[in-house]
Write a structure and sequence with these properties.
homodimer; mainly alpha; two-stranded antiparallel sheet; globular
Amino acid sequence: MDNFNVAISTSIAMPFAIGYYIGFQEWNRIFPVIIASALSFIIGYKLIPVIKESTLAAGLGGRDLNKVSNKKIPESLGIVPATLYLVTMILAQVLFARDHDAQFQYNSATLSVCFMILLGFCDDVLNLRWRYKLLLPTIASLPLLVAYSGTTAIVVPRMLRDLLGYSIELGCLYSLYMILLAVFCTNAINIYAGINGLEAGQSLVIGCAALTHNFIEITLHINDQIYTQHLLSASLLIPFIFNTLALLKYNKYPSKVFVGDTFCYFAGMTLAMAGILGHYSKTLLLFFIPQILNFIFSIPQLIGIVPCPRHRLPKYDPRTDTLECVPTHFTLINFVLWVTGPQHEKNLSTALICFQIMCCALGFYIRYEISQIFYY
Amino acid sequence: MDNFNVAISTSIAMPFAIGYYIGFQEWNRIFPVIIASALSFIIGYKLIPVIKESTLAAGLGGRDLNKVSNKKIPESLGIVPATLYLVTMILAQVLFARDHDAQFQYNSATLSVCFMILLGFCDDVLNLRWRYKLLLPTIASLPLLVAYSGTTAIVVPRMLRDLLGYSIELGCLYSLYMILLAVFCTNAINIYAGINGLEAGQSLVIGCAALTHNFIEITLHINDQIYTQHLLSASLLIPFIFNTLALLKYNKYPSKVFVGDTFCYFAGMTLAMAGILGHYSKTLLLFFIPQILNFIFSIPQLIGIVPCPRHRLPKYDPRTDTLECVPTHFTLINFVLWVTGPQHEKNLSTALICFQIMCCALGFYIRYEISQIFYY
């Protein structure tokens, strides 16, 4: 078992291990979702090799720029776990059949994710322009905005309460915040990419971290509302983790399939929906630290101060079979290569996944230790 | 203005004219949907020429087999009205914000249609096999089945009531009936195709007939429940009619774009959802008489008693620019050509649309006159 697999397995084991350790009691509530998700994992694992022939035949494929081989790798295979995710979500909907409000929110989240997958797949097939990449998640997040019935107030940090009061009612600005979160999550994953297994790997680690957070909050059971919100979020994340795992099996180094924009949009939207419905969007952003760093690095090229090439991959050296830093590509990947020197792609992807795990751990530390200073 | 345009314009004017004539009072309830739908019509009309370049570039196109020209016609343009339909539906959702149950059903219908569009577009791009054509609408109709909260009993015709009682509770069988309706509607439109403007034209006429039925039932206002159901159905159908019209502008003879499986699935699912949520599925099937006839003609080839070719188009005669009957293709189109002799494609499509309108009129006659014998 190589290091990459160890990192991924650890991530998946973490919510369950920590849940068990802290005395999580609600296994019976999530058990049907786990069974359904495990089934969809098996179907996805069997289906990807079949559908990859169809995507290749449809012209959805490209060569792996970090390899010697000129062989075409099938693209957009994210459509398989994404579709199976929707099927799982639809079937698991009966879990909330008794709680009308939760079911409605669950349903709206599924609609948002479904619409995002449709738009992502359109983007893969039709190669839409850049401006649509900001428009599409905005449109797709609308179902949830309309359905959102929670608070639109934010709690003010302790030191500012004399000035601003205990909380600020944001109203419509809160809807704007939710849209921006959806737009950020989808695009942040999309631009932190280019190494085998990175898109699916990072999404899986973030999903596991968010699920761990759900299990902790469900166990703490501060009040019934928070309990329900985190249960809802967990039922969005469990099928996501299993289906992403099926894709990662084929996408990790050496990639047999590419995930496509379909997957990046799907993953970003699902995580954003879980954060919004679970009411832990600030904590979610803590798990996005690598993506935020990559976004900050990318700003000069995103807004056009520095010219932005079509791909911002590292340079592949076929002699040594390693990737080298390209100083004009402002990404976290190139920054890591600049710090460490040339790396084999497999090691680099493992390192980036480990960095993602460390950032999530840091996120938990900030959420449960440092935030006390500001909020309690 | 040619005959085809007259037929389509008449269909669209019909619900509004009849609504006005019978004293329909709820214009203010549907006015926002009409405005939103009219806007989406304009956007769709502008967007189709842009997106058709992208679909062609993506390899989604084929030559028109009923023409002399070898020029490639862009395929799958149904994705444009379908996506705009979803946007309209999501934005119009606020109309039902006060009625939780109606909003939930509306939302579930949107999810079903969205999932169907996703699967339809996948089918267009990936050329899925025949067996998926039955599986996909089954999966896509699940959100509505889970959300469906109405009656699962059917009223027994008068002459059988001594034997069976006033109504029969179908329970789970009713869910099966709803799935079969969705599967039938999507595939029935898909196989009654092959002539310029027929897929979009027939769907538009059926949509207008169903909307007319909604307006009649809303005006009759037998009870609040039936009133709400038909209002819900109308708000599903109005954006459908407008968006389909935008597509039909380019799809009618001579076709500048083809609609693709995306559109057929989208149209079938939307009509099925409207029928289920409006609780008038039997009346809806009356509007599907041409599709039912075409399905009955097709049975020998569908179940494989008679060999079934890939396309079952009429034969094009370039000398006379007409279409001729092919006796081995068991479709309604070929039957019409066999009765009338060779026809120009434009006349044939107009004739088939007029036949669709006549069947809808017959449907109304059966629903409001003949059914009295059985049910009152």
